[in-house]
Structure to design on (182 residues):
């Protein structure tokens, strides 16, 4: 009986992808053709979340913007490496989301150097992946969205460009046709 109940419990458990402990993975970032200087600047910028819509406001306390960071003034120069440290809830993710263009500054000025293209992989990025997609299908969707927003400078939307890009991260051959879902 005990063995049967354990078998049933195992059958009800969610399947997860196997852990690859010995998997070798290397890649290189492409060298940019030129680097603007400064690459990115914030001047007296308030960062946070915009006012709620009327529908959301009825569910929340306020329809005012929620400012997380006040009067931020910083620049990132070409060749600099930066680290963003702080306790939970202090605005690190808000800063990163603003720099990546996911959030718009509430006020002040954010200036991106000419030709700068930012990439962003969110903490919860796996939630954005569609399980039925392949890596190539995901990249095609991202490329179409970037081109529609006028940010398609990193790719012309050709499938071969996307295959080459994925190949630079060791996604080749059959891996391009495997579904994201384990």
């Amino acid at each position: 009986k005990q063995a049967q109940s354990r078998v049933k419990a195992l059958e009800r458990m969610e399947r997860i992808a196997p852990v690859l402990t010995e998997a070798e993975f290397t890649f290189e970032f492409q060298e940019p053709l030129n680097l603007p200087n400064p690459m990115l600047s914030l001047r007296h910028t308030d960062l946070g979340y915009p006012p709620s819509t009327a529908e959301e406001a009825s569910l929340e306390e306020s329809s005012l913007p929620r400012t997380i960071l006040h009067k931020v003034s910083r620049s990132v120069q070409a060749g600099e490496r930066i680290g963003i440290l702080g306790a939970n809830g202090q605005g690190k993710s808000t800063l990163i989301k603003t720099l990546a263009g996911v959030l718009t500054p509430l006020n002040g000025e954010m200036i991106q150097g000419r030709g700068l293209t930012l990439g962003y992989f969110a903490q919860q990025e796996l939630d954005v992946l569609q399980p039925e997609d392949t890596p190539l299908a995901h990249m095609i969707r991202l490329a179409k969205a970037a081109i529609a927003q006028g940010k398609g400078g990193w790719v012309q939307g050709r499938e071969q460009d996307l295959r080459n890009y994925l190949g630079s991260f060791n996604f080749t051959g059959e891996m391009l046709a495997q579904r994201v879902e384990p």
